[in-house]
Amino acid sequence: MHRDYDITVIGGGNAALCAAMTAAEAGAKVLILEAAPKPYRGGNSRHTRNFRCMHTGPLGPLVDDYSEEEYLADLLKVTGGKTNQHLARLAIRTSEECLPWMRDHGVRFQPSLSGTLSLGRTNAFFMGGGKGLVNAYYRSAERLGVDVLYEAHVAHLELDGGRVTHIDYTYEGCACRIAPKAVIVASGGFQADMNWLARAWGPAAQNFLIRGSPYNRGVVLADLLEQGVRSVGEADQCHAVAIDGRSPKFDGGIVTRLDCVPFSVVVNKNAERFYDEGEDVWPKRYAIWGRLVAAQPDQIGYVIIDAKSLELFMPSVFPPLKADTLDDLANQMGLPADKLRKTIDGFNAACGDTSAFHPTELDGVATNGLEPPKTNWARPITDPPFYGYSLRTGVTFTYLGLKVDENAQCSSDQGPIQNLWAAGETMAGSILGQGYLAGFGMTIGTVFGRIAGREAAAYAN
């Protein structure tokens, strides 16, 4: 191991690797400190599937085109306008050049997956998923001379005089200290710290599931915020989706997501509907459901579909509950059967002409006189057997993070911190104020990882 590193990158996921490779290609000697063991390296990136990419004309696996303005409009819709448009446009505009760069660094792509995602024009899917991407990047980083320490737990970055003077971490049971010329923080959010989540959300957070890495506990984030590094975002804003209620507490990943909501009726534990299941195509609206479920009693919801919808969405990792009658399904799910029957009967009565039903685009097949309405894909739940899933809030990453500028540089009230940059989920709140757009986290991580690596290397050199 080299002791005189130009740059230390904290974290081992997509943003960290993009930063490390970019810095190494600029001639810097780079060390990655990854908290996870080697088999679990990569943070949340190993659970990803795709990268949202602007393009003018076909690009790699992407068809047609996806303009900067359309991309931004999609982002503004899901965030309700709560975004830094300057940084958002930077991420969007730069994404087009990232896809060839990713391919040059070992990432392979495949056509978009079938089902309800409808992303063939906007999102490039990784061959082998996120783990394939992470492994490809580690191979490329090794060829570039990047060193990696696994199970290296960073405890403290010492800030003095507007710069980081050293990093304290533990490795193989020993306390270690390193003093690189520059530091890039790419260690994710704080979502795996359940106590921190509970401070932000209240006791309801104890019922949340964490889709991603159990190693993203926000230790470095908290350390820097306590020393006056500028923050961005709110502690109770996050990328949260509704996932299968039978998922593990941590690290269930992308496969725990359920894509059946648009074709279903969703009820709470009282068998009452609480939101429009057909509001928009799923990639644009799936991320609101985690927060919706979090607001229900006991933070749980239940999906009800019938036989004609079973093949319309990507298969779930756990098979659904199945019953020949709604009463039997209600009993299996612990729901009041009479109330569920009343809810489904009311929904069915509000459904009209379904001849225009189209599962992959907004079809306007809506309910009449029902509150809340279902504005698309509203077909009666009538064909046995009936199927059911439980839903829990699955947190992917939190948005409270380090505020950065267009160069990915961090700052305090005294001005820019000379040798500190941030990339990925730990600064995503600089762009994402609320909501989420499928594949955009990988866009942020790739774009700002490369920027951070470039800027840190220029400073170190």
UniProtKB/TrEMBL annotation:
Keywords: FAD, Flavoprotein, Oxidoreductase. The keyword Cell division does not apply. Pfam families: FAD_binding_2. Residues 6-433 form the FAD-dependent oxidoreductase 2 FAD-binding domain. Its cofactor is FAD. One of its GO terms (molecular function) is oxidoreductase activity. This is FAD-dependent tricarballylate dehydrogenase TcuA. It comes from Phaeobacter gallaeciensis. The lineage of its organism: Bacteria, Pseudomonadati, Pseudomonadota, Alphaproteobacteria, Rhodobacterales. The gene is cobZ.
